[in-house]
Amino acid sequence: MPVDTYGECYDDVVKTFAPFPNARIVRGTVPEVLPQVKAERVCYLSLDMNSAEPEIAALKFFWPRLSDGGIVLMDDYAYIGFERQKSALDEFARDYGVSILGLATGQGLIIKN
């Protein structure tokens, strides 16, 4: 899905997260903005970018920061039309020695141990 199919949403995101003082919004595209992310530990990572390349880049970036027992939820893992993401995520799983649980929702789940 091309990036330009999404409209401008930055102000909506700022408004949505306004009640959460510890939330830090990083504007930009993945993977270019990843070095701006200062989180040292992550316990939950949700991937829903509708594109294999930025999702894999984010997963590789956050994997060393993901706590033991941390959860990665991949939105478009087993949906028809998103085979490229499934293939890329399966390759990541093989390379990192982890398993992906396919959920009835079409999502994929990794629990880091």
Question: How would you sum up this structure, described in words?
Answer:
By secondary structure, this protein is α+β, with helices and mostly antiparallel strands. The chain has a single domain (29-111), classed as Rossmann fold, CATH 3.40.50.150. Helix content is 29%, strand content 19%. It has three helices and four strands. The chain has helices spanning 10-17, 52-62, 83-96, and strands spanning 42-47, 66-74, 101-102, 108-111. Strands 1-2-4-3 form a four-stranded mixed beta sheet, covered by helices on one side. The relative contact order is 0.15.
Mind sketching the topology for me?
Elements: H1 10-17, E1 42-47, H2 52-62, E2 66-74, H3 83-96, E3 101-102, E4 108-111
Parallel strand pairs: 1-2
Antiparallel strand pairs: 2-4, 3-4
Helix pairs in contact: 2-3
How many DSSP E strands? 4
CATH class: Alpha Beta
Mean pLDDT: 93
% residues in beta strands: 15-25%
* Backbone CA Rg: 15 Å
How do the SSEs run, as a string of H and E?
A: HEHEHEE
Query: What is the assigned CATH homologous superfamily?
Result: Vaccinia Virus protein VP39
Helix content: 25-40%
Give the termini separation.
32 Å
Low-confidence stretches: none
Q: What's the main sheet like? A: 4 strands, mixed
> Which word captures the global form?
globular
CATH level-two architecture: 3-Layer(aba) Sandwich
What is the CATH third-level topology name? Rossmann fold
Strand order of the largest sheet: 1-2-4-3
Quickly count the domains. 1
Structural classification = alpha+beta
* Total of DSSP H or I helical runs spanning 4+ residues: 3
